Amino acid sequence: MKTKDEGSLKGRVAIVTGASRGIGRAIAVGLAREGAFLVVNYASKAAAADEVVSEIRAAGGNAVAVQADVGDLAQHERLIAAARDGFGQLDILVNNAAVTKRETFLEATTDGWDRTMDVDLKGVYFLSQAAARLMVAQKSGKIINISSVHDARPMLANSIYNIAKAGLVMLTKSLALELAESGIQVNCVSPGAILTDETRDRLADPAYRAKVLAKIPARRVGEPDDVVGAVLLLASAASNYINGATLYVDGGMLLQ
Ligand code: NAP
Question: Is the pTM of this model over 0.90?
């Protein structure tokens, strides 16, 4: 068993947005297990974020919880400062936080559009910009965007989310192209159906679950931990020649 001192990310500093629950939590714990120092971002659930920090510290790691709404650009500096001033650098940014307001196209409102785009796209773009300004000075860095299979295949009655996630794939490619010469890689991980607070209630409905399972060749819904391996690869030196890529972690969902 590897100790933290031998981890592939020993001494690296990472921000994970939306790390208090679900996929973000698993990613934060996974990065910390590899030796990274963590800024655990959350929107409103401070107790959940504190629990993640405690779990990381109990395993011998280092982490701090920082509240910030990534959809509010004025709050980004809090996250950057926690890495830069608290840990001395920023090596990895995982843009995981996202919101979705399921509504049909005919019911969709400008409020839903604005909030989804602010958090899922504009927030990612400008937080990445703030992070990249530090990374360019360091001449290294990894930005990893958590998208969704719905960046490639639309979810019914969730068009704004689909559009935001598709935009995230082009955001990834565009930033990858501009930042490559600075030694920074920007990549995307797109999960399929994963059991989290966001999906738990719907997946508890046997009819809905059966419909979802029928679309997954692996015949199971993923767990947050299923997403961690792809992120660890894209956060480590093993991926230094991978740039602008989107890696689908979906049990084969997009195959059919
Ligand atoms: P989740 O369980 O609902 O957790 C959401 C996390 O994001 C929480 O930590 C929450 O903080 C935080 N958050 C929400 N709005 C935020 C904001 N404005 N600023 C900062 N943090 C915010 O979500 P999830 O299912 O793990 O999804 C994580 C990512 O995976 C998202 O990008 C999602 O689109 C993507 N994804 C999920 C699935 C799936 O099946 N679950 C599939 C494909 C893609 P609080 O705890 O403070 O509320």
Answer: yes
